[in-house]
Every structure is written in structure tokens, then in C-alpha cells.
Specification:
Blueprint lengths: L9 H4 L3 E10 L9 E11 L5 E10 L10 H7 L13 H19 L3 E6 L2 H14 L7 E8 H9 L4 H7 L12 H21 L5 H12 L1
Parallel strand pairs: 1-4, 4-5
Antiparallel strand pairs: 1-2, 2-3
């Protein structure tokens, strides 16, 4: 069986980085003091045609860490009751380790060398994940320590809008505002949006870059 072209392999698309879409729901805006209450991670892959698609999603309700602050306004906004036993919440350490195990398998399967967090306003999600890693004393995170891909920025460029619901609508992705502010729902919609933008860029001739440059050189010759 012939091997797919380099441009159709994930390890060549983002300089060896493995994109993982993450969304968190929290009990406030301060990653150092406010609880991480929910986390979801969507892993991506490239199909045989070089289209970026969703591979799998992991989702966890998370127990507030000891001494965590719970802002009433944030809980009212996301509708999470941290004390509800039916949430089936797990410790931060368990959630992170399960996600990291899946990410490391994805890294190995794709031939990528490091994961990179994709998020809508990614700095927020990255800060809470990073602080949770620190609290859990996890020494080997598969994620880049500071670099991210932000779909709010990418959507502003590709679609002229930065709000997730509106950007999804413009991309033809169904979005139910009643389901929003769930880490699982928001992560999967963000993943669809990221795949749409990456695949659309390829369809417009922006990838592979070498092909685009060759076409330009021929046009001006």
C-alpha cells in the first residue's frame, strides 16, 4: 500500500505539533484560586484525503481542588453544581492523566513530537490546564508550555467573526445555544470549527505551501 503524501500526514501539517482541542468550565476566571469543574479534550487526525477530522473526545466532571474558590456568578452562568453527587466528578489528577494517556497515544500514532492546545480564546483554557498540572505535580505534560492555536483569532481571519456560536453558524456548523457552556459541547464545536478552517485553507490552495508558491512563481514568470 502506498504511503500518503506528506501534505496528507498530520505530523507535517503543524511542524510536528499534534493539535488537541480543549475546553474547560470553571468556578471563576482566576486559574490560581478558582476551581476547574469540567474538562473535555477532542483529539484530531487526518483522513486518507488529508482532511482534518475529529478522532475521539474525552470528557470529565472534576472535583474542586482543596481550598478552591467557587464564584457564585460563574456557577450561575455555567449551571454547574459542584456538590451534586450525580456529576460523577473525579479528581483533577485522574482527569488529566486519562487525557494525557490518550494524547500520548495520538502523538505516537501520528508521528508528532508534541501536543499543542487548541481552544476558543485558548489562553483561558491553557492557563487552567497548566495550573492544574502544577497542582497535581505532573512532571511530563505532553502539551507545549505556552504556545496555542486560538480559534477565536482564526475565525476572525477566516470568517470575520470571533464569537464561537456565530463563527460556527457562518461555517455551516450547527450550534445550539442551550447546549453551550458545557465543556463537552463547546469542545466538539470548537474542534469542528478548527477542522473547517484548516480544511478550507487547503481547499483554497493555501496548503501545501510549496504548491502555492510554485503556482505563484508560474503565474509571474
Amino acid at each position: 500500500m502506498s504511503q500518503p503524501a506528506q501534505s496528507n500526514q498530520l505530523k507535517y501539517r503543524f511542524r510536528g505539533y499534534y493539535p488537541v482541542v480543549i475546553d474547560v468550565e470553571t468556578a471563576g476566571f482566576n486559574c490560581a484560586t478558582d476551581a476547574l469543574l469540567e474538562i473535555a479534550a477532542t483529539l484530531l487526525k487526518m483522513d486518507a484525503d488529508g482532511q482534518l477530522v475529529i478522532d475521539q473526545t474525552l470528557h470529565f466532571h472534576v472535583e474542586p481542588f482543596e481550598g478552591a474558590n467557587l464564584e457564585p456568578e460563574s456557577l450561575a452562568f455555567n449551571g454547574i453544581d459542584p456538590n451534586n453527587p450525580l456529576r460523577g466528578a473525579v479528581p483533577e489528577d485522574d482527569a488529566l492523566k486519562a487525557i494525557f494517556k490518550a494524547v500520548r497515544k495520538g502523538l505516537k500514532d501520528s508521528g508528532c513530537h508534541r501536543a499543542i492546545l487548541v481552544g476558543h480564546n485558548a489562553t483561558f483554557d491553557h492557563s487552567f490546564v497548566s495550573k492544574a498540572i502544577e497542582r497535581c505535580a505532573i512532571k511530563r505534560s505532553p502539551f507545549h508550555p505556552f504556545a496555542t492555536f486560538d480559534t477565536a483569532t482564526l475565525a476572525g481571519l477566516a470568517l470575520g467573526h470571533t464569537v464561537l456560536a456565530k463563527a460556527c453558524s457562518l461555517a455551516g456548523i450547527a450550534f445550539d445555544n442551550k447546549e453551550a457552556h458545557s465543556a463537552l459541547y463547546d469542545t466538539e464545536r470548537t474542534a469542528e470549527l478548527f477542522c473547517y478552517i484548516v480544511n478550507r485553507w487547503k481547499a483554497l490552495g493555501g496548503w501545501p505551501v510549496e504548491d502555492n508558491l510554485e503556482s505563484h512563481d508560474e503565474a509571474v514568470a
